[in-house]
Structures are given as C-alpha cells and as structure tokens.
Design a protein that fits this description.
The chain is mainly α. The chain is built from 14 helices and 2 strands. It has a two-stranded parallel ribbon with strand order 1-2. Pfam families: FA_desaturase.
C-alpha cells in the first residue's frame, strides 16, 4: 500500500505491517480486558460535570440583563455544549461505553445536543469515515464533499473559494454536518433513493425544530426580562461549540503531513494495512489533561482511529505506547501543538484550492 497526498519515505515490508497489526491488536485486547469501574466513574463524572455546567449556565443567563451574569452564563453553557458534543456525544455514539450495559450511556439510545440525528451521524461517520479513512472516492469526510484536500481529488474552479468556504463553515459547523449527513451527492449519483433523502430530511427538520425551540424560544421565554441577552448567550454558546469542534476535527485529519490514499491502494487490505492507514491518515494535537477532555480526547486522533470503540479516557495512556511502536517501525507519528496543526491545516486548504502543478 503506497500513500499519496503527502511525502512519504519507504514503507515497511508486508511482514512488518502484519507484525505491526498484531502489536496493535494486543494493545486493544489489553484495554478491553481491563475496562472496569475506573472507566465507568470517569464517564459518569463527565456527565455530572457537563450537566452542572449547563444548569449553572442557563440559570446565569436567566439573569443576564446583568453583564457579569451574561458572560459567566455564556462561558458555562459553551463549556457544557463542548463537553456534550465532544467527550460525550461523539464517543458514546461510537459505542465506547456500550460494555457498561447502562441504557442511559449507550450508542443505541443516546441523542446528542447537535442538529444532525444520531443515526445519520453514525452511518456517515462510524461506518463510512472510520472504515475508509482518507481514501479518495470512499471517505466523504475527506473535505466533506466541498473542500479539496488531496491531489487525487479533481480540481474545479469553485475550489478557489474553499478558504472562504472553510472559514464560513466553522461558526455554523453543526448545520454543515447536518446537511452533509443527508448525503444529497450520493442521491444525485444514484447511490441512495430520493425517498430516503426525503425521510432523512424530515427527521432532520424535526430535530432542528426541537433544537431551535429549546435554545431560542423556551429558555429565553423562561428568562423573562432577560430574554434577548439569554437568546444571544445561547447563540454564542452554539457558535463557540461549532468553532471549537470544527477546529479540533480539521486539525486531527488535515495537517499537511497527513496522507491520503486511492481505492486501488486499499484493495484486499489486511488488518495490519488498515492499522497502517489509520496512523498515516490521522494527526494528534498536544496539550494538557483539560485540553484533551475538551477535545473529547480527539486530540489523540491517531489512537482514536486505531481504536475508535475503546474508552476515550484510555487514549492518553495508549498514545506514548503507540508512538513508541511507530518509532520502532520507522512510521511517521504526526503530532504538534494546536497552533502548528491549525496552521498546517490551513496550508493544505490553500494548497489544494489551486490546481495541481
């Protein structure tokens, strides 16, 4: 398997790749064998803290005629929405906590505070993106059908606008993901029926109405004289969450050193080769414990792509072990602070806005 989209030195011989896969399989089995009460306390603690931030934020916004209350309420609600989206919604819907057998923290029952319905997101993200990570023509998350992020993607003059498109997408990211999950491009190509699109659009509209009513009608109405600043606080909190999630997701998938692949290169792919592609097609973001929690531990994007259904709190301890394995096999382990990964991602967006040289 030969990577494209980024410069790559010689890759391991096939027998090395399978040895790599066996090592990573052993790491996965080790975590599965040791999941237990410590992990359960972690996720329940995150849920408790997230709800506390949301309740406190909404109470403060109910008195947000006073500027200090508005600032505190907006900050707390923003934090609650980030935790709910990143460390709870994303990871619960991956099935990371299904092993607990708790119906309240299960991928089949969780519905998140995000526009796109959970089932639609699981289809496009869990099953398509994580199976075909960075494979041009199979992974629709590679640019989300609107950005060109690989030289193998055909260039169109419309791509000249992609820096602007990406900047505009960030504050409304949940709307972009919701429309993307409808897969209108797949319908146009004949891969899905128009009737399915209509049904999915109706489900999206129903959820969007509930979300909009909650944040922009119900809670502002309950705030009485503080209705307008409460509404603005909710709008700011949703915007902050959107910009944050967009930033973390883009920095975990699209820095310049992250590689892309063609469909021909992944034909008859073995387990070891799949692992290798996840390593080469992802990037980590360095930071402290609180930063990792606020990213949903997606700052450990390499470990997440290797083990998407393992508890997210384990990624921090897996990361140095995965990095050591990569060093022994001479594999790139793309990591760096947020500002560097963000700059590198924008470099890639700008580079592929232009036709190939």
């Amino acid at each position: 398997m030969r990577a494209s989209g980024a410069e790559s030195d010689s890759l391991p011989q096939p027998e090395w790749v399978e040895a790599l896969g066996e090592e990573l399989d052993r790491l996965r089995a080790e975590v599965i064998a040791t999941r237990g009460e410590r992990d359960a306390r972690y996720i329940r603690g995150i849920i408790t803290n997230q709800r506390a931030f949301e309740i406190a934020g909404r109470i403060a916004l109910a008195f947000s005629l006073f500027p200090p209350a508005w600032v505190c309420g907006t900050l707390m609600l923003s934090t609650a929405k980030i935790l709910e989206n990143m460390e709870l919604g994303h990871n619960v819907l991956h099935g990371q906590w299904d092993w607990m057998g708790d119906p309240a923290i299960h991928s089949s029952t969780w519905e998140w505070d995000f526009l796109t319905p959970a089932d639609a997101w699981k289809r496009t993200h869990n099953h398509q993106h994580h199976t075909w990570t960075n494979v041009v023509g199979r992974d629709r998350d590679l640019g989300y059908t609107i950005l060109r992020m690989s030289p193998e993607q055909p260039w169109h003059p419309a791509h000249l606008a992609q820096p602007l498109v990406n900047a505009l997408l960030a504050p409304v990211f949940e709307w972009g993901i919701a429309l993307y999950d409808l897969e209108p491009d797949v319908v146009l190509s004949g891969g899905r029926s128009p009737r399915r699109l209509v049904n999915d659009a109706a489900r999206l509209a129903a959820k969007a109405l509930r979300q909009l009513a909650k944040d922009y009608l119900l809670f502002p109405a309950l705030a009485g004289p503080s209705a307008v600043p409460c509404l603005l606080g909710n709008l700011c909190a949703n915007t902050v969450r959107n910009i944050w999630s967009h930033t973390i997701i883009m920095c975990g998938h699209f820095p310049g050193a992250v590689q892309t692949f063609t469909e021909e290169q992944v034909q008859e792919e073995t387990r070891g080769q799949w692992y290798l592609r996840q390593i080469q097609g992802s990037a980590n973001i360095e930071g402290g414990p609180l930063f990792h929690i606020l990213t949903g531990n997606l700052s450990h994007q390499i470990e997440h792509h290797l083990f998407p259904d393992l508890p997210s709190n384990r990624y921090a301890t897996l990361a140095p072990r995965v990095r050591a394995i990569c060093q022994r096999y001479g594999l790139p382990y793309v990591t760096g602070p947020l500002f560097r990964q963000y700059a590198s991602t924008w470099g890639r967006i700008l580079r592929y806005a232009l036709p190939n040289r």
